[in-house]
Write a structure and sequence with these properties.
The structure is a homodimer.
Chain A lengths: L13 H4 L5 H5 L7 E4 L11 H14 L6 E4 L6 H9 L3 E5 L5 H8 L4 E2 L4 H9 L8 E9 L5 E3 L6 H7 L2 E7 L46 E7 L13 H19 L10 E3 L3 H12 L5 E4 L2 E2 L1 H9 L2 E6 L1 E2 L3 H9 L1 H4 L3 E3 L2 H4 L2 H7 L2 E5 L2 E3 L4 E2 L2 E2 L3 E2 L6 H7 L2 E5 L3 E2 L4 E2 L1 E2 L14 E4 L2 E4 L5 H12 L5 H14 L14 H9 L9
Parallel strand pairs in A: 1-2, 1-5, 2-3, 3-4, 5-7, 7-8, 9-15, 10-12, 11-13, 12-14, 15-20, 16-23, 20-24
Antiparallel strand pairs in A: 5-6, 16-17, 18-19, 21-22, 24-25
Helix pairs in contact in A: 3-4, 4-5, 8-9, 9-10, 14-15, 16-17
Chain lengths: 513, 513
């Protein structure tokens, strides 16, 4: 992808135009040991040319018996040209804060790559505070560079402001595939000083703009500009299955009930929904539901949210990135200008900011791997040790939201895994942060309940039919025999379901013969 | 404690003076099934007369074979006249959000009382949002009632504003033991509307006042006023032991290092420290240390903080309550006016507000029961099931602070319990929220580390010498045999240390003969 010789209409500043180089040359500006802040949040707005060339360089070095590894910080997950390529080359020393690439996941779980799973709202400030070491390079995809040097961001913001502010040297990828109509959609807030000089972030409504649409990139730090013309890559959309639709149905019914009881305005409160098919099913459910004048304050704009914007049910959406299926993306890119008043893309330190989430009262809806009978949630680790993706922003939203909802089908892997277990094998969200649990079986409203009351309700409402009596049995025996009876547990068997699965591939107990 | 006939100089409003009644009469205004918001945060500012009379009423009803129970919400823990008396009478249906009373704890862990452990910052808003049901009664200790009906709060604020705002009827205890010089020390913020109408809380410095020194109590809701003259009751102070001093030493050394590396200003950032002797040891260490111009933004004013104020090292302290030993309390009460410019008492929805804690960059220091090799922290449950006190505000501070430090001696119960374990038996603070772990053995700075790196460092720096090789052995075998190697675990033995303790009273493995 060497396009350095082509003239570019995306770089209007003549001085910066002179910094155009090939991706290979730009990758040559990166040294082993560098800590690199890359753009990218889900399959949107990540650099698409330089990481591949960097992976080549790293592979070459390894062929020659030389060490070459870099640390890669991003917004969240990225595409195969970034995570996949660098992981395959064995080029990543430390990766953070979130990933969903199969090759990356494989290496992390083989113990071959260090990965640090961080609340998405923590990343920018930890870097600015100097907690994560010096940022050597910022490698950021953008949509265009204006005459005066201001930069039009790409289809995600993530931590780009922080990478550009903190890195010693900057490489930009200017991707002409990104629609120029993105200009004006972003809102980069430049008022967040580190303590003790922080002042209140003035945001009070999801659609409010508090910053500037442009990324400020100091020209003297730019060491290279690479031209690309490459699409974002997000997963295709799956039509919601029956379980997802039932989960969505339970949530909509519950929200209706909350409105009826006066605990929520008729147009609800700003919606956050995690990435994925269940989240999309909820959004599609809202499209057919009774609520009007909705808003969202979330991480990513998914297919379902575009549907809600198109139908007029959603008046505005705030996020840090697009995360659209190829079909919907094509339609949105063709009409990007029509969404500019209704979509705001922000840095993730704002989209995921605990203070703002609490202030505007976000309704937080996130998926989970498993929950235990007391409502502790595992979002990240299969069988307690194998990381799936990462905690992402779920903690930012769940603890600070007006309401915190976690959802998943009651069973996985053809019923060999129960989502509801006696004790989760890893905790990402403690009982204190989980107010509502939903599976296709039903919804457990845990507000105001003690642990034993929670356990009874979760088993009754959420567990799959096969596992329900087993959980009830565990709880009953725990209530008799537990050391303490506030949160009754039998520690000799609290993780036995996971052990059984690891031994036999099935959480169900086998009949003894 | 029937003092209704005495004239009172603490009630300057004649209309309200007519509502004075005996504690017994006031207790008669409470019905079985009532949900009562009571004042009290640690042993400060809790009602001291009506709860005892209520306990008598409840006991009488039980003697007659009648049901009588109430739900009791407070700021945090209280004194024996409240929690102890009501628990002994079997009078509590549901208790929240924090307790430390031996009788209460006993009943909760016997499965006889429902207790809900909540982040202290969540309580007020959950009640205001209607998530925890209707508040029937507010029972609040105050220092005085002014001519115009405004109320001078007592030695703690906690959730009093919320109780008074939300309850149908209000009973005030006017405690003449509380110094009148408390007037002007409080700062009650009345700007916190529920979403979608919340605006930024304007607080940017620990000592800043953003509200009014008086509690607004609608006179028409006051159904009774009871006069008391009873002391607050907090635990006596223990001189820091050797382990606490060493923990304090490690933390001070670390903070000095952070200043030297430019990651913190020379006067540090606002300090939060949990309740207890280790926290006090840190504060005493600061008194002898090199830092000047300190501030604190915390839950309680402890002995050590008074020492720092007296020495001039601490310029101001923000909290929601006093929590002083009897000796120090006597001295402070005698000189309360001299502290009025330097101490601010706030509602706990402000003292513990995540957005403010993050904004002003609090250094969070909290105790723990145990931590695992990956840095997950258990603050509440002994052996996973038996609740000690509660999570309190530790989650509010740990996740949102500039830095989150957890501390405890490396061993408990004469070495039969290791504070560092393979896997915690209950999680209150996930690995994502724990940046620094400290025991008397040393300090582990976990920033920027992957789980396996964290494990090596925690074992090396924090574990007790006897348990260190056992933990290293667990980690080494887990790194070989674990299902996933991101967070290696052997689930068949991850909780075996706790099981061994429950079986034998000792986490140490016995020599097989």
């Amino acid at each position: 992808m060497s396009t350095a010789s082509l003239p570019s209409t995306r770089i209007l500043n003549p001085k910066l135009e002179r910094k155009i180089m090939s991706a290979e040359t730009a990758a040559g500006l990166i040294q082993s040991g560098d800590q690199i802040g890359m753009s990218g949040f889900t399959g949107s707005g990540y650099p698409k040319a330089v990481p591949i060339e960097l992976a080549h360089r790293i592979a070459d070095a390894h062929f020659r018996g030389e060490k070459f590894q870099v640390s890669v910080f991003t917004g969240a997950s990225t595409g195969p040209e970034l995570d996949g390529a660098l992981a395959m080359a064995g080029g990543i020393h430390l990766r953070l804060p979130y990933q969903s690439d199969p090759e990356t996941r494989k290496r992390i779980n083989a113990g071959e790559m260090d990965y640090m799973d961080i609340h998405l709202s923590h990343v920018a400030q930890f870097v600015e505070y100097g907690f994560l070491g010096k940022m050597d390079v910022a490698l950021v995809e953008v949509a265009a560079i204006l005459e005066d040097g201001r930069v039009v961001p790409s289809s995600s913001i993530g931590n780009n402001k922080t990478w550009v502010d903190c890195a010693d040297r900057i490489i930009l990828e200017v991707n002409s595939w990104q629609p120029l109509a993105l200009e004006g959609m972003h809102d980069i807030y430049y008022g967040l000083e580190p303590p003790p000089n922080r002042v209140p972030i003035p945001l009070t409504k999801p659609g409010q703009r508090i910053g500037t649409p442009y990324l400020k990139v100091p020209p003297e730090k730019i060491v290279g500009i690479v031209l690309t013309d490459s699409p974002d890559r997000n997963s295709p959309f799956k039509t919601p299955d029956e379980a997802s639709k039932r989960i969505a149905g339970h949530i909509l019914e519950f929200l209706g009930w909350e409105v009826k009881k006066g605990r929520m305005p008729a147009n609800l409160l700003p919606l956050q929904s995690g990435v994925g098919n269940i989240a999309n099913a909820v959004l599609f459910g809202l499209e057919e539901g009774p609520f009007e004048g909705l808003t969202s304050y979330t991480e990513v704009i998914q297919d379902g949210m575009i549907g809600l914007l198109n139908s007029g049910k959603l008046t505005c959406a705030s996020a840090t990135a697009f995360s659209l299926s190829p079909e919907v993306l094509t339609a949105v890119n063709a009409n990007m200008a029509s969404y500019r008043d209704r979509i705001v893309l922000r840095p993730q330190e704002i989209s995921n900011n605990p203070g703002i989430i609490r202030r505007i009262g976000v309704i937080s809806m996130n998926g989970m791997i498993e929950a235990d009978i007391y409502g502790n949630v595992n979002s990240t680790h299969v069988m307690g040790s194998r990381i799936q993706n990462g905690i992402g922003g779920s903690g930012d939203f769940a603890r600070n939201g007006y309401l915190s909802i976690f959802m998943a089908p009651s069973q996985a892997q053809k019923g060999t895994i129960s989502t509801i277990v006696p004790m989760v094998s890893h905790v990402d969200h403690t009982e204190h942060d989980v107010q509502v649990l939903v599976t296709e079986q039903g919804l457990a409203d845990l507000r105001g309940l003690s642990p034993r009351q929670r356990a009874k309700l979760i088993i009754e409402k959420c567990a799959g039919p096969e596992y329900k009596p087993l959980l009830a049995d565990y709880l009953a025996r725990s209530e008799q025999l537990s050391y303490g009876k506030h949160t009754p547990h039998l520690l000799t068997e609290s993780l036995s379901w996971h052990n059984r699965y690891l031994r036999s591939g099935n959480m169900r107990p086998r009949e003894e013969s």
